[in-house]
Design a protein that fits this description.
heterotrimer, A alpha/beta, B alpha/beta, C alpha/beta, B: 13 helices, 51% helix, globular, C: alpha/beta, Rossmann fold, six-stranded parallel beta sheet
Chain lengths: 218, 241, 479
Amino acid sequence: MISRDHILNKVRTALGHAVGRTAAAPPPVRLCVPAWTVEERWQRFASALEKLGGNAVRVSEPAEARRYVAGLTCGRAAVASRSPFLEVCGIHQLAGVRRDFRDPAELRAACAEAEFGITGADYALADTGSLAVFASPEEARLISLLPPVHIALLPISRLLTGLDELLSLVPNPAERSSALILITGPSRTADIEQILVRGVHGPGEIHVIVVDDRERRS
Amino acid sequence: MPARVALFVTCIVDQFFPRVGLAMAEVLERLGYRVDFPEAQTCCGQPAFNTGYREEARRVARHFLSVFRDAEYVVVPSGSCTSMITRHYEELFRKNPEALEQTRRLAPRVWEFSRFLLEVAGVEDVGARLPAVVTYHDSCHALRELGIREGPRRLLAKVRGLELREMPASQECCGFGGTFSVKFPEISASMVRTKVEAIHQTGAQYVVSVDASCLMQIQGALNRAGSPVRTLHLAEVLASR
Amino acid sequence: MMTGYPREQIRRTLADPRLQEAIYSATGRLMEHRRQVVAPEVLPDYQELREQARRIKEHTLENLDAYLEQFEAQVRARGGEVIWAKDGPEVADFVLDLARRSNARLLVKSKSMTTEEIGLRERLEAQHFEVVETDLGEYIIQLAQERPYHIVAPALHKTREEVGEIFSQRLGVPRENVPERQTRIARTVLRQKFLTADIGITGANFLVADSGAVVLVENEGNARLTTSAPRIHVAVAGIEKLIPRAQDLAVFLKLLGRSATGQPLTVYTSILSGPRRQGEWDGPEQFYVVLLDGGRSRVLADRDKRQTLYCIRCGACLNHCPVYRRIGGHNYPWIYSGPIGKIASPQFQGLTEDPWLPFASSLCGACAEVCPVKIEIPRLLLELRAEIVKAQAREGQNRWERLGFRLWSWVMTRPRLYEALSLAAGLLAGEGSDQGWLRQLPGLLNAGPLRAWLDYRDLPVPGRSFRALWRQRTARVRE
């Protein structure tokens, strides 16, 4: 407590403030959301992600998404999250895919061993080729982090223009989750002689499958 | 009645590069201006200001303000001296309302040479001729404090026979920085070495800038390196026939 | 004035062609990457964003007391805890106590300049805790027992051969010189550390007041692992890291990656609020944010120089500084190098600690041009120079220079005296010249600033001054 009072006191003195003074109004929030069509968003997203060495795929139905994932994993060890969208796409039914774990320790061990981590994504951001994933009981953090390949599936309706739009939809991420992670391409470093190397600690390979089933549903 | 301009040649030009001052006067006269040289002028005070000696800088700056008080235009062959007067005098006289007032009245009438030609005289072609390959060095104060970049290039483009070749990293500092050049000579020398290499890469015969202090640093290094390249102030190029 | 200036060390750095090439090309590349993503065609509102970022930082600091309290309340509301630390030792005391209470043995760390500033790792290691740096560059530096070379690229100065040497010596692995393979080695070793560590320590790029959130940006994934695998997360951050709202991240995240490495967004951005929530499978069980003062409140009190605290540690000023690009990070006295280091060191470490530092700049202004939060570095350098000169006057130091400038100002306000002296100089310099330029000066004259100049460059000979020639010209015209 002592340091707290000490520091706050020093700050107040430095600013010439009395105790309990409320902050003046901050500069207005600045969020710019461009008016891009779904088609434009997809083009930009795919282009941005591919420039980073990631893979962006667009399919027109969940079954196609499932086939794509099957083609990647070929039955090898994969951990999938409990994201409802993954269930819609039937990912949990694929050979080699586990999504049930007794406890966090088992989940972690599985992630450490698996070759693939399969997750949903709450949103994708078109201008930077990013995914926005909130940690939750359905979405564990380590699934998109430990395995060397990350596969994410999401419906095209969740493809936003960019971070500005995300923050205008979700002004306070802390209210939703203990962790909001933006994933922009494969893990990388250039720490040794400025040479680019992928897959340092996070996944070195990322596939984002965007399911555009608007026509089917309407 | 021809308009009158007062020359503030700067102490470096006065002592080391008088040709620059003469060239500037020639160009201005050719354009129809009547050129004055207030003899009481000395320095703008920048060396002291940059080295932290504000009291001493104020003394010299006050002298400048009084010498040029009644000038209609003050034309300066130096970006750094111009910005000292038009930007840093405010800072220097923050607590001196009278000098601040004088500064505010005089500063709008103080012009770096290339700016004066383009914006007051309104000319790009001064009838100059210099058949040579030339490269241009962007002096830091001119570039970043006064926004001078395209102007000199436009003026050079109108010089007959002149071929302008851009050097790599023309915007990188030459390493003069006033007393920096003698307090940190090894770093200063390393910076000008890069500049000299860049100049040589262009194959130019001359390197031009709007600041004589940069030219002093660069020519000094060129000479030491045994290079045939010569520095020219923009005024000297524009005075060439 | 120049006390403490490491001239010999700097000369060695300047004379090392490999090091010069490494620093110059690495920073050159970062400059180019930045330029590409802030170009008007790519980011048309770049200047507007800078101004907005500056205003937000200015506002936040002006209301820091309120925002600190709001932040603390929010962290607690999410189940986290806030620790207030006056200085580095207090941070270390807290972490040591926490480690002991939790029976921790192994701590993993992601890159944090703040923890370097206070030497946290060293203090923990002195108490026999194993602390592992997990950012690849920092890991290399830790093994090499060196300081980081650059705010964003800690191992910028190391060749692959040097890295291979460090790994084989310190890790006992066979010699490997290919960066890809070296990275694999580090990945394998560090993975084990992540998965068995008890505590994860990070810094924070931003602290968000309205969410109680810690924001971390990175490219490797080590910060994510540091904050997802161990059961305890401790974020150490200076009080200046606060921003008011999560929505302000739209401005700052747009500037940080671009300014630092030319990336519109880094690979991972983590916005973390509190320990894991009910039903979550991973993430820390305990979440601590340590707020460090460490001299910041003192800087805050200086209205003019308070803007030093706007810094978001992008490293752009380093990359663009012609001085940094030649002398590199190890020639600066403190952990923060480059232009920001030049204005921060005197304010945090003391004005007269390294009095030469604010003078080691040609005031070219390249730094201010690229600073995403518009810190007026050249102007602050000039302020600091004036303060140092005053302090030295009080201490009776640097007498000759002061006398010199006093004399100079005296002469410069007496035009006739000035003219007389310039005439004398012209006559004196008649000898030893070569087409109007001097290669060297004889005997006693070859000293001080003249010597410093002439060691590296020729000096022009003062001949007839402009005013003398002008008089001649005017006289001729009259005739």
